[in-house]
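Q: Could you fold this chain for me?
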Amino acid sequence: MHDKFERFLCPALSLRAYTALTTETAKAITRLHKTTPNATYAIAEAVTATALLSSLLKPESRQNLSFKISGSGPMGTIYIQTDTTGALRGYADNPQPELSEKFESIDFSQAIGAGVITVNRDIGVKDAYSGVSPLVYGSIAKDTAYYLTTSEQIPSAVIIACDTDSDGVVTASGGILIQSLPDTPEESITIVEEAMKKSQSLQQHLNEGGDITSYLSYLLNNNTLELLSSTPLRYECSCTKDIVTASLSTVSVNDLQSMIDEDNGAEVCCTFCSKAYQFSKDDLKTIISNKDRLQ
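A: Sure. Below is the predicted structure, expressed as structure tokens.
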């Protein structure tokens, strides 16, 4: 089953809903960063949360969104980016935290610690929109719902699931976001809350080969769902040498000159994908020259 993000409307209950299947994307990102179990689960769930938060972006635009968890725990910061084309990339400050590696004792609160969620949306205006909320529950799903309800003023329910095999490789990853509309009756919210209490876990449902849309349908009392859009999701890093060059242009002339004198050049690695970009002495001299012209 391919990774995808889908938008739905449930007219009977006056609710909107979103689903994200992220198994292959989460697998690619965690494998790239050689994550240990606690980090694998945290990053995979952050990937799913970010995919669901792309619901805040205008479809078919050039908008993009970043989801950052800044915690006091050993993982430090988890940072995930996405755009309206379904490209996702991400990393953690420490993808190999020194915690118990027993699968039955995965502990998000211990791995992430106290901190905040920050969501930045680049919607094509001069200043990107930024929203912040505290980590209240120590659960990415619940804290994402809390962010949407408090910072975006959108009452939301979020379910996020992740599972791995005995080697720590992601086998199932996905999530559901359900939101009320201005005219949503209280009965609709009650129906969803009761269904969430009675349903099997989304993790189990996905591992058994279940379709995420059927799970969503159950939560919405099997009412008709209107599919509004479907976007394939994938791991993709947008780094280029031009982008890295622009980043180097922010480095001071003294530091650039030290790279020339001491190292005969520079190697810069992308934090997201670890791709290395080489800059010769002449490349660095050109960057310095361009900086001088702009001053």
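A (continued): The two ends are 53 Å apart (CA to CA).
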